[in-house]
Write a structure and sequence with these properties.
Blueprint: E1 13-18, H1 31-48, E2 52-57, H2 59-62, H3 67-73, E3 79-82, H4 91-100, E4 104-110, H5 112-126, E5 129-138, H6 145-154, E6 158-160, H7 162-170, H8 178-187
Parallel strand pairs: 1-2, 1-4, 2-3, 4-5, 5-6
Helix pairs in contact: 1-3, 1-7, 1-8, 5-6
Amino acid sequence: MIRHPRLLDRDRTVLVIIDLQESYRGVLSGWDGVEAATLLMVRGATLLGLPIVVTEQYPRGLGHTSEPVRSALGSRVPILEKSTLSCCGAAPFVEALAQLERPQVLVAGIEAHACVNQTVLDLIATGYQVAVARDATSSRHSGLVQPAWDGMVQSGMRPTSAEQALLELVESAGRPEFKTLQSLLKAERP
């Protein structure tokens, strides 16, 4: 079967979670939804065997990754500390992606207008195909999201959602993980 080259492929994709840190709880526009969508993506990526790369921006000051997400990640996923806004400015992040040899990057995280925006643009400039889950990213102020989103799309980012991305990655109802993924998707519905 011929598939569009920009559809996410489980053998070519890595999930990147950018700076979803506890200090943003209560101040990020739509925190609960962003956290829930990211948690769904972690569970789905784990089910489908995707590698996951997680960053934290200055954790001594901003705290660590959201507790529910951190718990779902378990101890198998290292969390990379950074001080640059773009993850691509941190050598451990660049090295982790290079070692995975996966050309597609699925992004969740915060803030849309800062670290997410700069990382996405740098990843595109480096040659990665980048998709960002709209429901898994936001900023402290909702008005900051749309300009960042528009700029990322115009630069070649592919918009998606947590559910859409996971359904692309599973590809077929005939896959052994499909029923479990379907249960995850149903459990995440309000």
